[in-house]
Each structure stands twice: as structure tokens, then as C-alpha cells.
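Its record is retained below.
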Amino acid sequence: MRRSKDTMMQDEDLGASAKRNIFTQSVVRISQTYQNYLDLWTPRAISRWIFAVFLIAIFVLRVLLSQGWYIITYALGIYHLNLFIAFLTPKIDPAMDFDDGDGPELPTRSSDEFRPFIRRLPEFKFWYSVTKSTIFAMVCTMFDCFNIPVFWPILVMYFITLFCITMKRQIKHMIKYRYLPFTHGKPKYQNHNDTSRSINLK
């Protein structure tokens, strides 16, 4: 009897460990497949943002047709605004290190030394957060418990006011520390051979 009980316990342990291994392997496979799709989408910036705008348009259409979930829409707008501000802000805030305004500045002219603009929130993470939050908000619209009655024009006016104040503060920050959040890569200069060839052709 003792041997049979021991063998049964060992079989149960082996079955439980096998189930755990199958579960962990399936989770790893799903995560790897998900990461592979993200890696495929990484260089396709235009396609990614078209997809994100399409999701936002579907969400807005859903809210307009249902005439509800204004709190979810307001929360989504505030979250997207915070993401956009982080996207426009440099990773190292010059206001934290150079309060006197005499610190290094990002280039604003083509003749200045090239220093790339490093964002606090990279473009891919910005898109990924926008897409995830929009899908999450769309899922929330499927539950009536989130459809809290509210006078929506107040939320619209408050969001517009908050957007204007936040963007005004960001533009002042950009003007004060002289940086541009949009750069398209290192500028290309003509080498000596190219310039001499162009002169000879003339």
C-alpha cells in the first residue's frame, strides 16, 4: 500500500509539472509571437499611425452613435495629451540642469553642430501606448457600468482649456531652451569631390 501511494503521489507530481511546463511554453510562444509582430511593425511608422488613427476614429464613431461613455472619452483624451507632451519633451530636461539658461542648447539652424533630439517618450512607445489605450477604452465601452451620465460640453471645454494651457507651456519651454522636437536625422553635407565636380561642370 505504501508503494502504491508513493507511486500515485509521484505520478500526480509529474502530471502537475507537465501541465506547468505546457502552460509556460505556451505563454512563452505567445509572447514571442507577439514580439515578432511588434518587431515587424517597428520600421513601418506610417502604417502604424494610420492604424492608430483608424482605431481612434472607430472609438469616436462608437461614442457618437451610442451617445455615452463621455468619461471614458475624456480620460482617453487626457492620457493621449500626456503622451504627446512626453513625446515633445527632451529626455534630459534642460530646466532641471540649467536653470540659468546658459547650458547647452539643441541646434536650431543647419550651420549648428548636429545633436539629435532624444525624446522622453520614443515614437514607437508613443504609438504603442496610444494603440493600447484606445483598444482598452473601446473595450470599456462594452460595459454599461462605465457609462456614467455627465454633461459632456463641460468636459469638452475643460479639455480644450487644458490642451491650450499645456501646449502654451510646452511652446514656451521650447522657445526658452531653443530646441525643436522634430528632427529627420543627421544632415548630409557634400564632400570635396562632389563640390569640385559641380564647379567643373559649370
Notes: The longest helix spans residues 2-41. DSSP finds seven helices and no strands in the chain.
